[in-house]
Structures are given as C-alpha cells and as structure tokens.
C-alpha cells in the first residue's frame, strides 16, 4: 500500500488530494518542510512536526499506509 497523507478535521482524518499527497511525500522524503497547494489555499507543511499551517489555522497531519 502506498503512503497516504491525511489531516485532522474535527474528529475525522481527511485525505489530501493526489497532487498534494505526492508533494507532501516528496517533502517527507527530503526530511523537511515546504509549501503545498491544497484545494483553495496554499499550506505550509512540516513533515518533521506533523502539522499543516494555513492562514489562521493549524492542523495535525499523519502519514498512513506504510
């Protein structure tokens, strides 16, 4: 099973779209942080701290399916 990145939204985990998932996986493999386009907004992703920051919002992220 290929790795899949998800983010917390209330009591649920929501998967990123395929393009964002691919970019986040690239960031993860380089061991860092970076910007990712998610539907509607650009988000700053930290695969080290496992967080996604959007204007006025911080969400927990997780890598699944490993």
Automatic annotation (TrEMBL):
<dbReference type="InterPro" id="IPR037197">
    <property type="entry name" value="WWE_dom_sf"/>
</dbReference>
<protein>
    <recommendedName>
        <fullName>WWE domain-containing protein</fullName>
    </recommendedName>
</protein>
